[in-house]
Specification:
Elements: H1 11-16, H2 22-27, H3 29-42, H4 46-49, E1 57-60, H5 64-76, E2 84-87, E3 101-106, H6 112-123, E4 127-133, H7 137-145, E5 149-152, H8 162-175, H9 183-199, H10 210-218, E6 221-227, H11 230-245, E7 252-255, E8 284-291, H12 297-312, E9 316-321, H13 327-348, H14 357-366
Parallel strand pairs: 1-2, 1-3, 3-4, 4-5, 6-7, 6-8, 8-9
Helix pairs in contact: 3-8, 3-9, 5-8, 5-11, 6-7, 9-13, 10-13, 11-13
Length: 368
């Protein structure tokens, strides 16, 4: 399959190539923020917020559901008075016990690893909160344990449902006094997402559409994505995941300063070299730097030095800055841009961005 950038401005192609409406699902993020917050407020969370702060919060989830835990961690920030851990496995850490809160997150409510972690949390006597599909096995576990359950709205695409999963966690954190996140904060995030969705709409041409422009930078490259703050690093991980799942395109992600101790070596490796005399085009490395207002002077120097190193070796560089002040707002703008770009990336390669047959095949092969 070949990359054809002209497809991105062909309205007929974008409509016919996206029959399941992934672009519409990504553009629905602002509505997700409002709907999910309302669902969390309507659920009875007093058993979580009314008993004081737990010793630790553990979020159990896979894929985008696990990313919801990462969102919670960076939104609460390094000053949080307790550890917040994401577990992407069927087992909880051995030290988790009755004084801890386990939040089990699964869009379908049927994820094998998450169900196992939720069951283990109940057996250990942990406080439990479940977020997932209504009428699912996850809801049944919560009901049996007398734990609160926040349903996820039906019809949302799993890979575009991050905010439906993450917002209830932020609402709980606000109730525990871990972060300031009232109605005005969520409305600010929703407003930012609506603005970005308008700028990334299919009818907006590539030269002014940030989602299409980013997809064009990624296409035919080997993307190496670095976050320049904890918030930006969560977005970098999300970008790599979405490029892989939606765009079917592999990407490397990392965090400054750590990436400067290992991944930076790729700037003088074989993928950083382009042969302009080759008969066929070859994919070469491109560095993507996700910037944030939390970037301190040490990281600023490392980012600027990384740009000079890359450009001095002929490696292309794309820098994207987060928008907004609240960490949830900044994170949402970075993540939404990557979600749009991964969808346009698939469409530019002639791929339907929604179904991924190899994932279904893997699940079928490992099912008992």
């Amino acid at each position: 399959m070949n990359w054809e950038p002209d497809r991105l401005d062909d309205q007929t192609w974008l409509t016919e190539g996206d029959p399941s409406g992934m672009l519409r699902a990504v553009a629905d993020s602002a509505a997700q923020i409002r709907t999910s917050r309302r669902a969390a407020l309507e659920a009875d969370l007093s058993s979580i917020t009314g008993q004081g702060r737990p010793r630790a919060i553990v979020v159990a989830g896979m894929g985008g559901s696990g990313t919801a835990g990462d969102v919670l961690n960076v939104v609460c920030g390094p000053g949080a008075p307790l550890p917040i851990l994401t577990v992407r496995s069927h087992r909880l850490p051995g030290w988790i016990g009755a004084t801890d809160l386990v939040i089990a997150v699964s869009r379908s409510g049927r994820t094998e690893e998450t169900l196992a972690a939720a069951g283990e949390a109940v057996r250990r006597g942990c406080r439990l909160l479940a977020v997932g599909g209504a009428g699912s096995p996850l809801q049944a576990i919560a009901r049996q344990a007398g734990a609160p359950f926040v349903p996820v709205a039906e019809g949302s695409r799993p890979r575009a449902a991050l905010w439906a999963l993450a917002v209830p966690l932020v609402v709980v954190a606000a109730g525990l006094g871990l972060v300031e996140a009232g109605e005005e904060i969520f409305e600010g995030v929703a407003g930012r997402l609506e603005d970005l969705a308008n700028r990334c709409r299919p009818a907006s041409e590539s030269f002014v559409n940030p989602g299409k422009s980013l997809a064009m930078d990624v296409a035919e490259s080997v993307p190496m994505i670095w976050g320049c703050s904890p918030v930006a690093t969560v977005a970098a991980h999300r970008w790599a995941s979405q490029f892989g799942a939606t765009g079917r395109y592999p990407a490397i992600w990392g965090e400054l300063s750590e990436a400067g101790h290992n991944q930076v070596a790729a700037l003088e490796g074989p993928l950083a070299q382009r042969d302009i005399f080759a008969d066929e085009s070859t994919r070469s490395l491109r560095l993507f730097l996700l910037r944030d207002v939390e970037e301190d002077t040490v990281l600023l120097r490392r980012r600027e030095a990384s740009v000079r190193l890359a450009e001095g070796r002929g490696v292309g560089v794309t820098q994207i800055a987060a928008e907004g002040l609240h960490p949830l707002e900044r994170l949402a703008t970075l993540i939404a841009l990557g979600d749009f770009a991964s969808t346009y990336l698939a469409l530019g390669y002639g791929l339907d961005p929604t179904p991924v047959s190899v994932m279904n095949e893997l699940r079928a092969r490992i099912s008992p």
